[in-house]
Amino acid sequence: MTEGAFCSTCFQTAHRIVSPQCDRCGVPLENEALGGTQNCCAACHAHPPVWRSARAAFVYDAWSRRLILPLKYSDHTENAAVLARHMAVAAQDLLEKVTLVVPVPLYRTRLWKRRYNQAGLMAQGVARLAELPCAVDALQRVRPTKALARLSAGEREQEMTQAIQVRKGRDTLIRGQAVLLVDDVLTTGSTATACTLALMKAGAASVDILVAARTGRVDEQNPRFVQE
Questions:
Q1: What pLDDT, in 10s, does the model give residues 60-91?
Q2: C-alpha to C-alpha distance for 204 and 16, rounded to whole angstroms
Q3: Is the pLDDT at 105 greater than 80, yes or no?
Q4: Which residues lie across from 16 on neighbouring strands?
Q5: For 160, how many CA atoms within 13 A lie in the half-sphere containing its CB?
Q6: Residue 210 in contact with residue 87, Cβ under 8 Å?
Q7: Do the beta carbons of residue 56 and residue 68 sit within 8 Å?
Q8: Of 209, 207, 194, which Cα lies nearest the Cα of 164?
């Protein structure tokens, strides 16, 4: 039995993120004591994210990149359904609280070149599994942004400032909803922060984050992880 290009044995070696993990940003914790009574890492305790909670299926490492990067850059759209199944398992508790699923958007020129939004495919997959509505076009990037991978946390935050808005006419769909924001990877949180602020401005009751993979400990000690 296989899942996409992976056999079931391969998935036994995956670094899944399970408890203990930070409830706020989804980063894995070495032990429950590090989370304290609020189940929260040191960075989130000092600088709480603008969203409510975050979950990730896997640690972002060599293993998870073998699923995510081909989806993102090489047209392996079948990987979206595979990732969505594992994301839904990781976010079981959140899926009981949310009422609408929304993906992180691509800028229109990048969408035209890629022909699909990988976050949108995963969001639709999660929404189907959870029997929730999905608004794939609720958010839009109003200007192109640089690739964030090689930018520092501060540069990412600056690059994403006012880059994302709720699409005109979609604010009525967002208002009052408990939104689950879906993306492929959570690193410094700059994109998730920009999306969350746009959703809250449009009247969302809450925003939670769900990603396929989460970068590890380096961000746990990074005070620039969240909007200050």
A1: 999 999 999 999 999 999 999 999 999 999 99
A2: 30
A3: yes
A4: 58
A5: 27
A6: yes
A7: no
A8: 194
How far is the C-alpha of 200 from the C-alpha of 217, rounded, in Å? 28
Residue 98: exposure state from Cβ atoms within 10 A (0-12, 13-18, ≥19): buried
* pLDDT for position 84: 98
Q: Read off the tokens for 156.
A: 């990412």
Helix (H, G, I), strand (E, B) or coil at 37: coil
Contacts of 149 (CB under 8 A, 6+ apart): none
At 150 the three-state DSSP class reads coil
pLDDT tens by residue, 142-153: 876 656 566 566
pLDDT given at position 11: 74
Q: How far is CA 24 from CA 40, 54, 119, 170, 186, in A?
A: 6, 5, 20, 27, 12
* C-alpha span between 41 and 27 (Å, rounded): 8
Provide the token pair at 146.
């640089």
For the stretch 8-41, pLDDT in tens is: 667 778 899 988 999 999 999 887 766 667 789 9
* Phi (first) and psi of residue 212, to 5 degrees: -70, -40
Cα-to-chain-centroid distance, residue 155: 19
